[in-house]
Amino acid sequence: MRLVACVNDLVGALSLRARCDWRARWDRVAHHLAQVPREVAITDADAAVHLGEDRPLWRAWDLLVAQRGIEWVTAAKLLARKRPALVPVYDRVVRCAFSHPPRLWAWLVGHFADAESDLAGRLARARSEAGVDDRVSVLRVLDVVVWMRPTPDTTPGAAPAWRPSRADVRHRRPGALTMQG
User: Region (Disordered) spans which residues (predicted)?
Assistant: First the structure.
């Protein structure tokens, strides 16, 4: 199976202000993504294996952020688009909402695996109550919930969220981002 950068991917990247030569690395990124089944979800028992360091998704991440013009937010959103049930959207809003976990992918897998918290069940119920189709993964439901909740950036009078400089985050992986200082 050949994974291609479709028109929607390119439009999405341009809307995220990515300026790069897609052909330069896309075949190698596609090679790594092809090693991760499309149907794997973050709620699956083997999600941790697919999201582990030095696995194909990490290699795809590294190739993307090494490409001039693609920053960590763009790379995260592209991978989330290609594996929507497995890879979380990771941007400044999500990072702030989750209080900068040291290894986001592993941190989220742990929360989804925690039977006591039943995160997946609660998100599935929220999806159902909202009348959203079951084809929308619980991970995408989590994205919406996180984006819709008030944060210090959107709540009047609240303390401002920590914002790193570009140099702080330029080459770090989503699971390796930590607050500096």
Answer: 154-181
